[in-house]
Amino acid sequence: MSTAPVFDPAGIRNYALVTAAYWGFTITDGALRMLVLLYFHTLGYTPLEVAMLFLFYEIFGIVTNLFGGWIGSQFGVKLTLYGGIALQIGALLLLTPVSAAWPVALAVPYVMVAQAVSGIAKDLTKMSSKSAIRLVIPQNAQASLFKWVAILTGSKNALKGVGFFVGSVLLAAFGYVSALLIMASGLLLVLLSSRWLPAGMGKIKQKVKFQQLFSKTPEINLLSGARFFLFGARDVWFVVGLPVFLYSGLGWSFEQVGGFLALWVIGYGIVQSLAPTLLRRLGSGRPPQASTIRFWTGFLIAIPAAIAIALQLNRPAGQTIVVGLMVFGIVFAFNSAVHSYLVLAYTEDDKVALNVGFYYMANAGGRLAGTVLSGLVFQFYGLVGCLWVSTLFVLLAELITLKLPNPQAGHAA
Questions:
Q1: Burial of 348 per CB tally in 10 Å (0-12, 13-18, 19+)
Q2: Which of 16, 22, 236 is nearest to 122 (CA)?
Q3: 110 by DSSP, 3-state: which?
Q4: Distance from C-alpha of 195 to C-alpha of 17, rounded to nearest angstrom
Q5: Is the dihedral of CA 343, 346, 349, 354 positive or negative?
Q6: Helix (H) or strand (E) holding 125
Q7: Helix, strand and coil percent figures for the chain, each rounded to 5
Q8: pLDDT tens digits for 222-263?
Q9: How far apart are CA 349 and CA 356, in angstroms?
């Protein structure tokens, strides 16, 4: 006879504190991305130069996820979470001196360094919040784990969409420097109001050797490989190619570009939050299995290919992009929600920070590849080229997921 899972009130409070801090951070992260992209595009930077501005953001995200997981396991996720918020404030302030008077040869490396700080900050906070879920959900609550992961991840993506809109509006209304200072002030309030998380949350007793950072189970390795190509497939056309195409190719304004991308990410986040309920109605009611991610990844392959073919056939570009991006967002949301659940379902409590850090290192690696290719491919082959690379990346992710086993009951149930 099964018993209902028992939730620790203190654990729920801790989860709420982590989530609230992460939400505040996420808005500024999305706003900063849109702010930098639009501002430097208007200064005359090429798509490849704009992509280079985010290069260190992604590279240092890879390093941070690897070593951030180790730091979190040794010192607790409070240090990594609030350290990340403090670093983001520093990154925002570092970007304020940059102006149109700076030569490209100076501005690009300087902004790359500031974005490196922001990348470290983002992945420290993300790793901390995702690890906290595994520590709060009881071991006998597999379905609850999927639901809570989906709610956190979906709400984060919805708020990042809000951040896209906030960044574009702040740029249009207050200008580049004032927008950065407003965001830094808001994050400072988040940092000052979030002091009650226990210091030892997520800390493990034994010391972790360096080689253990890379020694993972086959399930984590396979899922991380699939994650690399999945998020590379999104960012190869979403990071640089799409917003530049909307602004320069279709003649949209700052507010229109930021507003549309914001609505897309918000909708994507809502679908991700609802994924457990929707999948339960569409399927057997069980938590996701390996076959679940294989289905949704296989479905995703056709969407960027269909958008590319429609554009090559000279279908109306605006309509094609809007409709295609909506379908892509819905299917991608299911993929991301199931991925975020599976990494915790494959993970034991005492390894959660290490495994989540390693997994999101692969996630950051995919974003890095996607970001660089987004600027490079768009500059030479346009948005259609970006979409075909996206199709290839999703296909590779699907091939990797073919080898994934089902989660073991001892880990997540």
A1: middle
A2: 22
A3: helix
A4: 9
A5: negative
A6: helix 104-136
A7: 80, 0, 20
A8: 998 999 999 999 999 888 889 889 988 898 887 888 888 888
A9: 11
* Amino acid code (one letter) for 185: S
pLDDT tens digits, one per residue of 144-162: 666 777 777 777 777 888 8
Residue 319 contacts by C-beta under 8 Å, 6 or more apart in sequence?
Answer: none
Distance CA 211, CA 194 (A): 34
55-99 per-position pLDDT tens digit: 888 788 777 776 766 666 666 667 778 888 899 999 999 999 988
Residue 67's contacts (CB-CB under 8 Å, 6 or more residues apart) are 213, 357
C-beta contacts of 316-325 below 8 A and 24+ residues apart: 317/249, 317/250, 318/250, 321/242, 321/245, 321/246, 321/250, 322/260, 325/242, 325/264
Structural domains present in the chain: 9-197+211-412 (1.20.1250.20)
**pLDDT tens digits for 1-60?**
444 555 566 667 777 777 788 888 889 998 998 888 888 888 888 888 888 888 888 788
**Alpha-carbon distance 134 to 21, whole Å?**
17
**At 143, is the secondary structure helix, strand, or coil?**
helix
What string of H, E and C letters represents the secondary structure of 207-252?
A: CCCHHHHCCCCHHHHHHHHHHHHHHHHHHHHHCCHHHHHHHHHCCC
Q: How far is CA 383 from CA 243, 248, 379, 386, in A?
A: 10, 12, 9, 5
Handedness of CA 276, 281, 287, 290 (dihedral sign): negative
User: What six digits make up the tokens of 242?
Assistant: 């799409």
Distance CA 388, CA 280 (A): 32
